[in-house]
C-alpha cells in the first residue's frame, strides 16, 4: 500500500496530467505553455525526491532504497523551488510567452496543487478540521482564479489566499496547544487518548514498560527486520536518537512473532549499530493492542502519555524532528 509522502508524490503526478488537460481544454491555454508547466513540476518532483542523495549520500550508498522512502526535506524543497523559477524564466524567454498569459494559467493550477497537498495532509491528520477548511478555501480560490483574466486580480487572489492559510494555521496551532493542555482519561489508540501501557523484554534481557517514560516525549515504533522500509528507517531513528535521545525516547517494538528468529533481530540491530533499546513482542499482543497492520507504524506520544499523532510508513530524521517540534 502506498503511504505517506509517496502517496503525495503519486497523487501529484496523477493530478499533473489532470491539470494539463484542464489547462488545455478549460482554460484554453496554449499547449506549449502547458508543456512547460507540466515539465517544470515533474522535474521539480524528481529533484525533491532525489535530493535525499545530496543531503545524505552515505545513507544512499549504504541502502539505495532510502531514495524510495525519503526526500531531502527543506533542502529538497529549496532546490525544487529554485529549479521551477529558473526553468520557467528560461522557457518564457525562449518561447516568447508573455508573463501575464503564464500567470493566468499557472494561478488556477497552483491552487489545484494546494488542494492536493491539503487533502493529503488532511488524510494524515483527519482530526484537524482546519486543514480541511484550508482545502475548501483552496478549492474556492481554484474556481475563482479559473474565471479571472486580469493579472492584477490574480496577484491579489494569491496574496489573499496565503493570508487566509496563515490565519487558519495560526488558529489550528492555538487550538492544538489548548487541547494538549487538557488532561485525558480515556485509554485507546486514537489521537488525544492515553497510549495503552505494556511491558516487554528488551534484546538485553531487561523489562521495559511504556509508562516508565512519562515526562518524556516518545516515538513508539513497530517494525520488523525483514521489512524494507523498516530497514531504511532504522538508521534515521538512530541518528535522531543520537541528537535528541536525552529529551525523546524511542521505544522500538519488534514484531518478533513474525520474525524468522530472535537472532535475525539481533544481527540486524548490530549491523545498524542501534543504541536505543529494542523490545520484543514475542506473542504479538502489543501490536494487536495497537492494531498494527502496516509496518513500520509509529505513534508520537507526549510527556503525559497521550497520543498526539500516528504515522504509517517510514519516518525520516526530518519527519521525526518536525513531529516532535510540532507537539
How do the helices and strands line up, and which of them pair or pack?
Blueprint: H1 4-25, H2 31-50, H3 52-55, H4 57-62, H5 66-69, H6 73-95, H7 99-124, H8 129-147, H9 151-180, E1 199-202, E2 207-209, E3 217-223, H10 228-244, E4 248-254, H11 262-271, E5 278-280, H12 285-289, E6 297-301, E7 307-312, H13 317-326
Parallel strand pairs: 3-4, 4-5
Antiparallel strand pairs: 1-2, 1-5, 3-6, 6-7
Describe the structure.
- The chain has 327 residues and is an alpha/beta fold.
- The protein has two domains: 177 residues, no CATH class; 128 residues, Glutaredoxin, CATH 3.40.30.
- It contains 13 helices and seven strands.
- A seven-stranded mixed β-sheet has the order 2-1-5-4-3-6-7, with helices on one face.
- The protein is elongated, with a radius of gyration of 23 Å.
- The two termini are 27 Å apart.
- The mean pLDDT is 91.
